Amino acid sequence: MISRSPDLFNFRGVVSPRHLRSFHHRHHPPPPPAPTMSDLRPPEHQVAGHRASADKLGPLVDGSGLFYKPLQAGDRGEHERAFYEAFSAHAAVPPRIRDAFFPRFHGTRLLPTQARPRDPHPHLVLDDLLAGLRAPSVADIKIGAITWPPSSPEPYVAKCLAKDRGTTSVLLGFRVSGVRVVAPGGAVWRPERQELKELDTAGVRRVLRRYVSSAPGEGADCALAAAVYGGEGGVLSQLRELKAWFEEQTLFHFYSASILLGYDANAVSATGVGGGVRVKLVDFAHVAEGDGVIDHNFLGGLCSLIKFISDIVSEAPETPPLAP
Amino acid sequence: MISRSPDLFNFRGVVSPRHLRSFHHRHHPPPPPAPTMSDLRPPEHQVAGHRASADKLGPLVDGSGLFYKPLQAGDRGEHERAFYEAFSAHAAVPPRIRDAFFPRFHGTRLLPTQARPRDPHPHLVLDDLLAGLRAPSVADIKIGAITWPPSSPEPYVAKCLAKDRGTTSVLLGFRVSGVRVVAPGGAVWRPERQELKELDTAGVRRVLRRYVSSAPGEGADCALAAAVYGGEGGVLSQLRELKAWFEEQTLFHFYSASILLGYDANAVSATGVGGGVRVKLVDFAHVAEGDGVIDHNFLGGLCSLIKFISDIVSEAPETPPLAP
Question: Which keywords does the record carry (chains A, B) (predicted)?
Fold first, then answer.
């Protein structure tokens, strides 16, 4: 949306996307053998975006740790690819940040799909961020009060602004785009997209509480708040590490990107640690160059999310309720 | 703009503005005697907003430390008064924050003015934030990528958004609304409002450098950066204290408010401290209730301003250039 040039991320000191590709291939192990159509399936835990089907492109996983995201139509797909290529090789991105908070990028690949079996479509090959979680509880949270890059054309701004005002984005600096919570018995709570769009402040708070409740029904007990949100390696400590980077980084502005939260409902323990808590950034079709300015829009939303989550940790029972 | 009710700031646990007034009068010393029209004059150092004249209302000072701000037309004036009344008495505002970063509110007063000598107009009576500075160098920086409260009506949003996109607000999270720099010899640099509106990122950086330069011409030397921006009690340390409060406070959202910077160009020393550096919040006609959510919009812009200023401090000469 913000540039028609594939050289968008041709930063000073960073080679162009075309060169990045050869750079990438020179320094990384060769990509794994191409999966066949029968290896691939829509991810079970997908909570936002289009789901792959007979008539729609959507993300696919191969069950061995890779995630295939179809390049989006128009400039968006190329834009997201250019971001991944520039970001993967950018000398000013701390390796710890790249490894901890971003999916690893393995290039692009043409894949036949159920929707278009004879017309292979380019896919970004990324790490499957939820690989290894047996019962993934997932939340997709779109960050920022503003979801449109400043240089966007007027009709796009108007369209985004209407969504940002109609959801909690403008008010809270973020909105919940998707959520899936697995209860200990295996029951899944997964509200409809429309229900999420209509959430107000109290509703967002309720969803973020149910995300860490052992029985994710209406009466959220927040029994997992300490294990998932709090403590060492929990969501809060990861978000605070990300915040420290956003207070300094002036490379990229992450318009309309999401923070993906994940943990393993089977492994998490109400009494302490475990559960493979993950905090990752995803969806980079609208990233803009930072040009020496911090991403105050993402940072503000991130701080707001941190406040919501730290309030839940403070209010949660210090010792979880006894099992019945 | 966001409420037609004078009870806007009728927070839980806080009495209504009407009650606040009596609370205020009970606990504060009685206001000083009313100034006469001849005591009052437009502040010499005013850098933003309308200047009081024969045909316009504008702020006035009395030379003894008070600043009189005419209540704005429509709801804005009443809204700003309601904010000051609620804020002055709010038990959850730390006294240190109120005293360090906000003008003290002394109630309202009907004053005859040059513009309307026979029709006294209500004025907010506030501390003159720049009292005591012999040669005030001043900057007015409007904070936030979004300057309209979320509940504003459509035409107001469109009007603000056009300004926010046309200036640096959306891109940087703030814009410079006014600046006045006094050189050691007394010469004043005070760019026109239109010039400030047209600033791009590089221009904002240049203005923030010239603000701390001993010769505020084009060749900014940033000789005062360490004294004014850096060090103990400098702008940066004050902004960081403010930031810590904004990471926690969920009482108010300060849409379209400004940070006012001030120092005494006669007293500041390029070699160290001094200069009475001031960092204050002003302009509260569009403050909204926080309702338990942090002001991510103000916080993001504040963090962006902090990054700009800390970059200038890092780049400035550690030892100032020798005097010629």
Answer: ATP-binding, Kinase, Nucleotide-binding, Transferase
